[in-house]
Specification:
The complex is a heterodimer of chains A (221) and B (227).
Chain A: E1 3-5, H1 18-32, E2 40-42, E3 66-67, E4 73-75, H2 78-82, H3 86-91, H4 122-127, E5 135-137, H5 155-158, E6 179-181, H6 203-207, E7 211-219
Chain B: H1 4-16, H2 19-24, E1 36-38, H3 51-65, E2 73-75, E3 99-100, E4 106-108, H4 111-115, H5 119-124, E5 152-154, H6 172-175, E6 184-187, E7 202-203, H7 209-214, E8 217-225
Parallel strand pairs in B: 5-8
Antiparallel strand pairs in B: 1-8, 2-8, 3-4, 5-6, 6-7
The chains are: A alpha+beta (221), B alpha+beta (227).
Chain lengths: 221, 227
């Protein structure tokens, strides 16, 4: 295994303690699953700040090929993972609901799983691990690179739990994180790494669109 | 007041569009009639659909049975060139979109969106996935992990929606063979085959109904209204 989706988030919304905190979480989960001998990085971008260049998620995950907890290949290389040519992009990589497993080899519940009127509330989502939580933090554009506009797409480089400007997603012009769909189902396109933003950065905000702050981890060696 | 019916009616329609639209989509002015579906049943003879004509008629009959017969329906299928008979590209026979499923959820805005004609569009993908690629009755098509899996969609097409130009058979002899040959298949749930392709994931083992069933199919295909 050199790829997994975190089985649990860090519990502070999109505040992951920056890339360092997010990487440590990957490493810890991998270690608990017996894969701590590798070096693990979170698939997350950060945006440029004064004196601090942007970091692209795709540049921090090694070169592949990557395999899930069951030994299934999810992508051959960076070009396959991100669809760097039109042919590759049209085909897509092998990330889907049945392959992007947690470090424990579990499927991440996706769209319509465990549907319940309360399944967008953090309290309920914690009690019901079978409910949809397909939104996966990336802070990245579809090509796996950081956003270059002036808007924050990374919850202040994974340090913020700020509320958005509005609870309705399309009206939120404030704090948010770009997310992908781990089940390739929903979000208007099914993109694994860049479907849309969230309605804020807190745990409740992520829940509102069926997220609990999970993200992808890759071993770089 | 019970919560369950609310979920069944109001929120499933929004769930179908994904979490994004679930929050944001207010009741629209005039709902869009169905212009896309996956056939709820195959024709029962494997890759023999009676050619494009037979396949189109199947689309039309299924649509008519659910009140969608007012539109002209075409199967999303390519055929390969034969002496004196040019190839037909699936993408060239489905109109220009936008297309909506039986729950009035958009599938794709345009041919370019559907087929991923630009790198940006291809990377994102269209809105066609398991919870939107519904049959004409509004049912979700069984996918990988469901019993039985029927996600293999006959297309005979390359990822760009065009016919193959090599000498291999990719269309069960232009949809007339239920024996020898092979058909290129997509996945209505975009799962399996080592990729995420909705229209060109892998080839079938053969053209009999059993050949199609053996890899997760039932001889189903996509239908689009051209008007």
């Amino acid at each position: 295994m050199n790829f997994f989706v975190t089985s649990v988030g860090l519990g502070h919304g999109a505040n992951l303690g920056g890339l360092a905190g997010a990487d440590a979480h990957c490493q810890q989960l991998a270690t608990a699953a017996g894969a701590g001998n590798r070096t693990w990085h979170a698939y997350l971008s950060t945006q440029a700040r004064p004196g601090q260049p942007a970091v692209n998620a795709r540049d921090r995950i090694g070169t592949g090929p990557w395999y899930n907890a069951k030994g299934e290949m999810i992508a051959k290389n960076l070009a396959d993972l991100h669809g760097d040519t039109l042919d590759l992009a049209r085909m897509g990589n092998n990330i889907n609901k049945l392959t992007d497993l947690t470090e424990k080899g579990q499927i991440v519940p996706g769209l319509t799983d465990g549907a319940n009127p309360r399944d967008r509330e953090w309290a309920y989502m914690q009690e019901h691990p079978e409910s949809n939580r397909h939104e996966t933090l990336t802070g990245s554009q579809p090509d796996g690179r950081a956003f270059t506009d002036n808007r924050d797409h990374t919850c202040n480089n994974w340090t913020s739990e700020a509320k958005g400007a509005a609870e309705a997603l399309r009206e939120n012009t404030g704090a948010n994180a770009q997310v992908g769909m781990s089940d390739r189902n929903g979000g208007g396109n099914g993109s694994w790494n860049s479907a849309h933003g969230t309605s804020g950065c807190g745990q409740e905000d992520l829940g509102r669109t069926h997220g609990v702050g999970l993200y992808y981890c890759f071993a770089i060696n | 007041m019970t919560k369950a019916p609310l979920l069944a009616a109001g929120s499933i329609a929004s769930l179908l569009a994904g979490s994004f639209f679930a929050l944001a989509q207010a009741p629209g002015p005039q709902p869009h009639p169905m212009s896309f579906f996956v056939t709820s049943v195959g024709m029962g003879k494997g890759g023999d659909l009676g050619g494009l004509t037979g396949a189109d008629a199947h689309c039309q009959a299924l649509a008519a049975a659910v009140g969608g017969g007012g539109k002209t329906w075409h199967a999303y299928l390519s055929t390969q060139a034969r002496p004196g008979q040019p190839a037909v590209n699936a993408r060239d026979r489905i109109g220009t979109g936008p297309w909506y499923n039986s729950k009035r959820v958009p599938i794709a805005q345009s041919l370019s969106d559907l087929q991923g004609d630009t790198l940006e569009e291809a990377r994102l993908g269209s809105n066609l996935f398991k919870q939107t690629a519904l049959n004409e009755k509004g049912g979700v098509v069984n996918g990988a992990g469901d019993m039985p899996n029927t996600h293999d969609m006959l297309t005979g097409s390359r990822p760009d929606g065009r016919a193959y130009t090599d000498n291999m058979d990719h269309t069960c002899n232009n949809w007339t063979s239920s024996g020898p040959g092979s058909a290129q298949l997509g996945h209505s749930d975009r799962t399996g085959g080592g990729n995420t392709s909705w229209n060109s994931a892998h080839a079938s083992r053969g053209c009999s109904q059993q050949d199609l069933v053996s890899t997760g199919g039932a001889g189903l295909f996509y239908c689009f209204a051209i008007n």
